[in-house]
Amino acid sequence: MNWDQIEGKWTEMKGKARSSWGELTDDELDQIGGKKDQLVGKLQQKYGLHKEAAEKKADDWANSL
Question: From the DSSP assignment, how many helices (H) and strands (E) are in the chain?
Answer without folding.
Answer: 5, 0
